Amino acid sequence: MSSVAVFSKASPFDALQRWLPKLVLAPSMFIVLVGFYGYILWTFVLSFTTSTFLPNYTWAGLAQYARLFDNDRWWVASKNLALFGGMFIGITLVIGVLLAVFLDQRIRREGFIRTIYLYPMALSMIVTGTAWKWLLNPGMGLDKLLRDWGWEGFRLDWLIDPDRVVYCLVIAAVWQASGFIMAMFLAGLRGVDQSIIRAAQIDGASMPRIYWKVVLPSLRPVFFSAVMILAHIAIKSFDLVAAMTAGGPGYSSDLPAMFMYSFTFSRGQMGMGSASAILMLGAILAIIVPYLYSELRTKRHD
Amino acid sequence: MTSLAAKPGISLSRIAIYAVLILAVLLYLVPLVVMLLTSFKTPEDISTGNLLSWPTVVSGIGWVKAWGTVDGYFWNSIKITVPAVLISTAIGALNGYVLSMWRFRGSQLFFGLLLFGCFLPFQTVLLPASFTLGKMGLASTTTGLVFVHVVYGLAFTTLFFRNYYISIPDALVKAARLDGAGFFTIFRRIILPMSTPIIMVCLIWQFTQIWNDFLFGVVFSSGDSQPITVALNNLVNTSTGAKEYNVDMAAAMIAGLPTLLVYVVAGKYFVRGLTAGAVKG
Amino acid sequence: MATLELRNVNKTYGAGLPDTLKNIELSIKDGEFLILVGPSGCGKSTLMNCIAGLETITGGAIMIGDQDVSGMSPKDRDIAMVFQSYALYPTMSVRENIEFGLKIRKMNQSAIDEEVTRVAKLLQIEHLLNRKPGQLSGGQQQRVAMGRALARRPKIYLFDEPLSNLDAKLRVEMRTEMKLMHQRLKTTTVYVTHDQIEAMTLGDKVAVMKDGIIQQFGTPKDIYNNPANLFVASFIGSPPMNFIPLRLQRKDGRLLALLDSGQARCELPLAMQDAGLEDREVILGLRPEQIVLANGEGNGLPTIRAEVQVTEPTGPDTLVFVNLNDTKVCCRLAPDVAPAVGETLTLQFDPSKVLLFDAKTGERLGVAGLPKTESHAANVTQFKGR
Question: What is the pTM of this model?
Answer without folding.
Answer: 0.82
